[in-house]
Design a protein that fits this description.
158 residues, alpha/beta, Rossmann fold, binds iron/sulfur cluster
């Protein structure tokens, strides 16, 4: 009898822990604050997704200049070796858990600058969670990348 009660207690504790984790994940996915390292000809797309038509803020995504409060880094455009060091510094200053979304062919695979001595793909610098291809990726693709990241966070991946 006491063994059954003990097992039931474990089940209840397990369910409460699951529920707390789900609530925490839901709150994390609903308040993503990205720092943006957006450059090159991809950068106007950030204005599009921030504007009223695509409005990424409706998903709780609020670009923030303070690295200590951000949890996502949006990287687009050409990554030169010189800038890669700055991206690494930005990434290291962000608190855990932190995520990276790579946007556009240049950031993902050096794009049209694939044979340049001075460019790097972003996953040579920091670990990437979501890749959004395109040259440039359209605002819908940016939003899709953000929504996929939200789902990953809610499922507790990473
Ligand atoms: S992916 Fe295309 S649009 Fe974006 S920075 Fe590179 S060349 Fe420009």
């Amino acid at each position: 009898m006491s063994l059954i009660r003990c097992m039931k207690g474990k089940v209840v504790v397990g369910r409460v822990a699951d529920l707390i984790e789900k609530v925490l994940n839901w709150s994390k996915k609903s308040s993503l604050w990205p720092v943006h390292f957006v450059n090159g000809c991809c950068s106007p797309e950030l204005m599009q997704v921030s504007g009223p038509r695509y409005d990424m803020e409706r998903f709780g995504v609020l670009p923030l200049p303070s690295l200590r409060q951000t949890d996502v880094i949006l990287v687009s455009g050409i990554i030169t070796r010189k800038m890669a060091k700055r991206i690494k510094v930005i990434y290291e200053q962000m608190p855990e858990p932190k995520y990276v979304i790579a946007l556009g062919d240049c950031a993902i695979s050096k794009g049209v600058f694939y044979d340049s001595y001075s460019t790097l793909a972003i996953d040579e610098v920091v670990p990437v969670d979501i890749y959004v291809p395109g040259c440039p990726p359209r605002p819908e693709a940016w939003l899709e990348g953000i929504l996929i990241l939200r789902e990953k966070i809610y499922r507790g991946e990473k």
